[in-house]
């Protein structure tokens, strides 16, 4: 045999290694990506993590079926440095000898406990036995022990017959696997047995039942409550694996969760469980409202839901915060001032600057708009580049820029409002729709009537009843908000009734009760339900 052939036999081929990974496909999506370390394997995108795990395991099994048995001439693919079995440099002083690979080559599968990657590799049986959780799928033929007096058996001398006895058929070696390469393990060269693979530990203790990251105690009583909590946890996890959302089902699950957590709080006396029950009620209401908006049907199915101009509870709270800010900081007295200040605040709420045209002012029903603007500029609350007359004469193609210094952002003081620049035009459009309502304009409603309409639109229930829970609004407080006395307030309520804004108004025990009409419900901002959050507003 030539020297080149001997050199080729002495060279050991590197062990094969395949790694299949499962990663998220992107933010805000449940899709996952399955990738393989082999360049010829294309990535896969699947709709859920469960589908991705099944595809990853099937892909790795396909590689194992296509692969030939472990090659006896392969090097240990653990690469020594990253192997669990090899001792770190800092601990080698505690051992008489460093870890060495040994034993026949095996095909081993290692899986991540979290289900994020799966790996198959050719490695020695000794490393496979030392890696926790490793499973051997196939093994190369074992080598026989060398002669006592001969040199260690290697690929080179096995090919030439040196150091090995001849069998009955005249070929080198007398048993199967003779001539296969050996690793550098001394115990393997001396004929010692390779330590067996460590068995995979089994879990004897079942996983505890959980719901909303809370462990359901095994001794929770009554038993029916524990069974309900365990079942709800399973149902929520099953819902998360759905391909398409079902908001009606989600609302029912949150409602059941709210009742179950309330009963759990009573059984344990845990205040945090009561808070979780309230959050579940709010989540149920939000999911039910979204379902109504998507399907066009109410939860009871009796009538379609109200398509409101402001579509969420956060926007409704922002509208109330603007009115509260105007009542607390209006620079001048009177209902006309409060109406005008409200509209100007909504135009300039985000940056302190905005644009206005004369038509916006003339549509408010102000008695003397020019004098009112002059008074606001004289007191320093409003800045305009020209005169009030020029502002009233401005056209939509040439709007006037105005500034409210108190709303200009400053580094030394917090912003008066929490909403951003995208919500501000929605709030401004909502207020403009209320103020310029067709029936209010036809009736020649006074500015105080229009400001009262804005106030009542933010202080009603979802079905239009005035007050939190429909119990009415305190009359004295309403008069202070609108900057009028009680006699004038009753006149304003009568004007709203004539304009088909309010039906059945009545004053009982100093509270104004009644209901907003069906036609103005899209302009309302319902108050939170009692029991969920503080409804004192």
TrEMBL record:
<feature type="compositionally biased region" description="Low complexity">
    <location>
        <begin position="137"/>
        <end position="161"/>
    </location>
</feature>
<feature type="compositionally biased region" description="Basic and acidic residues">
    <location>
        <begin position="284"/>
        <end position="295"/>
    </location>
</feature>
<feature type="region of interest" description="Disordered">
    <location>
        <begin position="284"/>
        <end position="303"/>
    </location>
</feature>
<feature type="region of interest" description="Disordered">
    <location>
        <begin position="137"/>
        <end position="215"/>
    </location>
</feature>
<feature type="compositionally biased region" description="Gly residues">
    <location>
        <begin position="162"/>
        <end position="178"/>
    </location>
</feature>
<protein>
    <submittedName>
        <fullName>Uncharacterized protein</fullName>
    </submittedName>
</protein>
């Amino acid at each position: 045999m030539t020297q080149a052939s001997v050199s080729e036999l002495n060279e050991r081929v590197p062990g094969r290694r395949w790694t299949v990974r499962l990663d998220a496909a992107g933010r805000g999506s449940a899709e996952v990506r399955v990738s393989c370390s082999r360049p010829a394997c294309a990535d896969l995108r699947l709709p859920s993590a469960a589908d991705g795990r099944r595809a990853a395991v099937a892909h790795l099994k396909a590689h194992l079926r296509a692969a030939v048995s472990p090659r006896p001439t392969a090097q240990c693919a653990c690469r020594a440095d990253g192997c669990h079995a090899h001792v770190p440099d800092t601990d080698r002083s505690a051992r008489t000898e460093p870890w060495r690979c040994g034993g026949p080559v095996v095909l081993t599968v290692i899986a991540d406990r979290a289900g994020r990657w799966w790996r198959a590799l050719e490695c020695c049986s000794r490393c496979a036995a030392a890696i926790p959780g490793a499973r051997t799928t196939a093994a190369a033929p074992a080598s026989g022990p060398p002669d006592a007096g001969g040199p260690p058996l290697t690929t080179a001398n096995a090919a030439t017959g040196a150091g090995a006895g001849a069998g009955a058929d005249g070929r080198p070696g007398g048993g199967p696997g003779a001539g296969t390469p050996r690793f550098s393990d001394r115990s393997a060269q001396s004929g010692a047995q390779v330590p067996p693979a460590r068995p995979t530990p089994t879990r004897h203790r079942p996983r505890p039942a959980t719901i909303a990251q809370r462990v359901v105690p095994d001794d929770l009583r009554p038993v029916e409550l524990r069974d309900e909590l365990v079942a709800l946890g399973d149902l929520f996890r099953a819902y998360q694996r759905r391909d398409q959302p079902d908001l009606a089902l989600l609302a029912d699950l949150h409602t059941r969760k709210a009742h179950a957590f309330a009963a759990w709080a009573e059984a344990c006396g845990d205040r945090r469980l009561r808070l979780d029950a309230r959050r579940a009620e709010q989540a149920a209401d939000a999911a039910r409202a979204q379902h109504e908006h998507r399907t066009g049907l109410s939860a009871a199915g009796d009538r379609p839901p109200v398509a409101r101009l402001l579509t969420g509870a956060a926007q409704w709270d922002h509208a109330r915060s603007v009115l509260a800010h105007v009542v607390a900081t209006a620079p001048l007295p009177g209902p006309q001032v409060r109406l005008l200040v409200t509209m100007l605040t909504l135009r300039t709420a985000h940056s302190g600057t905005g644009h206005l045209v004369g038509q916006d002012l003339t549509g408010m029903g102000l008695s003397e708009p020019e004098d009112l603007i002059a008074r606001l500029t004289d007191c320093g609350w409003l800045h305009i580049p020209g005169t009030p007359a020029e502002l009233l004469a401005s056209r939509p193609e040439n709007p006037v820029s105005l500034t409210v210094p108190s709303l200009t952002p400053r580094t030394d003081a917090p912003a008066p409002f929490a909403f951003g620049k995208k919500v501000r035009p929605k709030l401004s459009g909502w207020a403009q729709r209320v103020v310029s309502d067709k029936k209010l304009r036809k009736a020649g409603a006074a500015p105080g009537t229009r400001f009262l309409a804005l106030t009542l639109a933010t202080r009603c229930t979802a079905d239009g009843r005035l007050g939190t829970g429909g119990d009415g609004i305190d009359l004295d407080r309403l008069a202070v908000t609108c900057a009028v006395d009680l006699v004038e307030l009753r006149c304003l309520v009568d004007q709203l009734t004539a304009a088909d804004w309010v039906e059945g108004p009545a004053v009982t025990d100093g509270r104004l009760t009644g209901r907003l009409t069906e036609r103005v419900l899209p302009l309302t901002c319902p108050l939170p339900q009692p029991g969920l959050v503080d409804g004192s507003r």
